[in-house]
Structure to design on (343 residues):
């Protein structure tokens, strides 16, 4: 072969390999780094959202009748916010030095001070007040209330209810786009609802098929992409946030409950009760690939990402046998723990 031909072949291989390299890593190297017991002996276990406040370097873990607050760097417990019945989500409003906790069994939103981590008040909501989000454009806090099939819009400064929005079905995890829209999964409708925070009305409703009973949601705000994961059927779909068009879909394991997008790496993380983190890569806004599937522990379905360390934080517990065929097993009292996955 002539030298010029060798050069052409080498260049072609370089371009091909370079294209593959930019398409995303073949694996991520994520594995379990820590396993920390946070149990209260004998306590009946219930746990839900994990929330990382990167600016304050805190982690909020909702845990039945309390929220455990951890130092994000040492993972030491620095406070416990108690007096709750069955809590779910946490929203942070830094400008007002306030945090908001949803207490589903008590049908209220509990307000606490970000400095003292003490409860300062509460706001009546609806039964099964569950996920919660702060929209920085409208400056409203909005809780999504599962069994009540509605959303409670709150003025966080006045700590008063502005409006209750009928959602037509049971809502799950929301995301904000930073431009005045809140997107929320609706498990009953198998759809994503786009809520305009200026008019406080539902602007659009988009089907999530081939994902059903959508529960987990994340967003690439720059490229206007939603990452929605559902339980029946078990799929993660990529959706255009302006048109509702499904761009791509991937099968996942059972019991999904959380999704996170990391802009710095283009990685999408999806966690499931079955005990896996599915990791996808945004090769381009219109092309995605699955790059890893990390084994975790059964029940570790809720998750958040620490932007500083790139670590994933999940909570779970030990579980007994299923009470009946097709039913989820119950967590064993006093076994609550934090799992940390990273490179």
């Amino acid at each position: 072969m002539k030298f010029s031909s060798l050069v052409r072949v080498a260049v072609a291989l370089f371009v091909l390999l370079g294209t593959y390299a930019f398409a995303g890593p073949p694996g991520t190297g994520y594995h379990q780094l820590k396993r920390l017991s946070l149990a209260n002996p004998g306590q009946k276990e219930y746990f839900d959202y994990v929330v990382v406040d990167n600016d304050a370097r805190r982690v909020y873990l909702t845990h039945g009748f309390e929220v455990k607050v951890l130092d994000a760097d040492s993972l030491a417990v620095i406070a416990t916010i108690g007096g709750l019945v069955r809590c779910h989500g946490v929203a942070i409003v830094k400008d007002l030095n306030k945090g908001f906790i949803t207490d589903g069994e008590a049908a209220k939103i509990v307000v606490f001070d970000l400095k003292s981590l003490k409860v300062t008040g509460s706001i009546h909501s609806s039964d099964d007040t569950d996920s919660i989000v702060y929209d920085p454009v409208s400056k409203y806090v909005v809780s999504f209330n599962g069994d009540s099939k509605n959303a409670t819009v709150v003025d966080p400064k006045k700590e008063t209810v502005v409006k209750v929005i009928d959602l037509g079905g049971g809502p799950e995890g929301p995301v904000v786009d930073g431009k005045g829209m809140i997107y929320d999964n609706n498990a009953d409708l198998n759809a994503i609802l786009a809520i305009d925070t200026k008019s406080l009305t539902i602007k659009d409703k988009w089907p999530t098929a081939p994902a059903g009973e959508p529960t987990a949601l994340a967003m690439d705000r720059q490229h206007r992409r939603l990452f929605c994961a559902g339980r029946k059927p078990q799929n993660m779909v990529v959706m255009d946030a302006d048109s509702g068009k499904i761009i791509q879909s991937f099968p996942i394991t059972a019991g999904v409950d959380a999704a996170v997008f990391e802009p710095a790496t283009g990685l999408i993380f999806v966690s499931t009760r079955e005990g896996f983190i599915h990791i996808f890569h945004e090769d381009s806004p219109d092309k995605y690939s699955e790059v890893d599937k990390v084994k975790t522990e059964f029940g570790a379905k809720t998750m958040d990402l620490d932007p500083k360390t790139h670590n994933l934080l999940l909570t779970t517990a030990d579980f007994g046998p299923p009470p009946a065929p097709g039913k989820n097993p119950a967590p064993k009292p006093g076994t609550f723990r934090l799992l940390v996955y990273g490179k």
Remarks:
- DSSP finds one helix and 28 strands in the chain.
- The chain has two domains: 26-45+210-343, 46-207.
